Amino acid sequence: MNGTLATTERLVIRKLTLADAPFIFRLVNDPDFLRYIGDRGVRTLEDAEAYLRNGPLASYEHNGHGLWGVALQTTGELIGMSGLLKREQYTDIDIGYAFLPEFRGGGYAFESGTAVLRIAAEVFALRKVIALVSPANAASIGLLKKFGFTRSAMEADDPNTILYEWVPSPL
């Protein structure tokens, strides 16, 4: 298997590998990633490899899912990541996504997120997906609403985070 989970009109959603460390290094050090998602302590390519080993790759092994790479179909270039996260403090699975600055605003997050939510419902049979978002991240909140997420009545464990939830439509 080549690690491809889904293809969309313009994108390939695939498992990340250690070879993706340069992309991860750039993405997790982007100022918006640092502001809205957090500092992952990735300062070198070796740190990026450790992030991959301890994050997405470990999640694939333990949970069957994790953050996946989002690449352009035409070139194979990674432009972001989108996927499903299992956080210890929450019962439900969380959707996560982040894109390089030059690929924001082009509908890629919506296109890949729609595919990820389809995987959540059809492959993993999830009856609910949550999302954690900074109240200052208006673009992400708008995207969640476009997916059909609603603000949860439950509180996030971090007072600087809003919890949203999505329930798939019955077939």
From TrEMBL:
- Keyword Transferase carried by entry: yes
Question: Keyword annotations for this protein?
Answer: Transferase
Q: Which InterPro entries match?
A: Acyl_CoA_acyltransferase, GNAT_dom, N-acetyltransferase
Domain N-acetyltransferase spans what residues? 11-171
Is Transferase among the key words of this record?
yes
Identify a single GO molecular function assigned to this protein.
Answer: acyltransferase activity, transferring groups other than amino-acyl groups
* Pfam families named in the record: Acetyltransf_3 (PF13302)
Instruction: From the Swiss-Prot or TrEMBL record, give the protein name.
Output: N-acetyltransferase
Its source organism is Polyangium fumosum
